[in-house]
Amino acid sequence: MRRPGRRGCLGILLAVLLLLLFLKMCVRIVPGDGPEQRAVPERPAAAEAGSLLIPVEGVPPSALTDTFTQARAGGVRPHDAIDIMAARGRAVLAAADGRIEKLFTSADGGLTIYERSPDGRRIYYYAHLDGYAPGLAEGQMVKRGQKIATVGSTGNADPAAPHLHFAVNEIRPGEPWYGGRAINPYPLLARPIR
C-alpha cells in the first residue's frame, strides 16, 4: 500500500482545516425531534433576548453566527441573511406576528415563506424549508412562535447541512413581497435593540 506523499498530506490537512473553519462559522446543530428527545418549551426563554423570536425551535442566541456580510455565489454578492443550522424536520417558528404574504418555490431558496409584518414595513423570509406546517396558506395571519414550517435543505442548500436561511427586508407599504432593502437579522435575534 502506498503512503500519501507530502502533497497528499497537505491536501488532507487543508481539507480538515477548511471543515473546522466552516463549522466554527456556522451555528451548533440542534438535534432533531425523536422519541428520546426531551420536550422543548414552545417559546424558549433564551430566544426572547432579541426583538424577534429565533425562528428555529430550541436554538438559543448563543448558537447564532452573524453570516449577513459573508460572500455568496462565488464572492459575487453578500449573504444578506443568516443561516441557522438545525436537524431536518426541526420546527420553524414565526419570528414575529404577521401575515403569510407568499408561499414560493425557487431554484436558490427552495421551499420558502414570505411573511409581512402587521405594519407592512418588513418582510421575513424563511428558505430551504423541508415542508410547510399543515394548513399554512397565503393571507393567513400568524403569531410569533407559531409553527409555520420545518427545517430542510431544499433549493441550493447542501443536503448534508439542513438549515434555515432567515432574512429580513425593510419594505415600503404596498411594495411587493420580493422587494425591499436587506437588514441584518442577527442583532434582532441575538440581543435587544437599544
From TrEMBL:
It holds the Pfam family Peptidase_M23. Its cofactor is Zn(2+). Transmembrane segments: none annotated. Keywords: Hydrolase, Metal-binding, Metalloprotease, Protease, Zinc. SUPFAM superfamilies: Duplicated hybrid motif. The keyword DNA repair does not apply. Residues 78-179 form the M23ase beta-sheet core domain. PANTHER family: CELL DIVISION PROTEIN YTFB, PEPTIDASE-RELATED. This is M23 family metallopeptidase. The lineage of its organism: Bacteria, Pseudomonadati, Pseudomonadota, Alphaproteobacteria, Sphingomonadales.
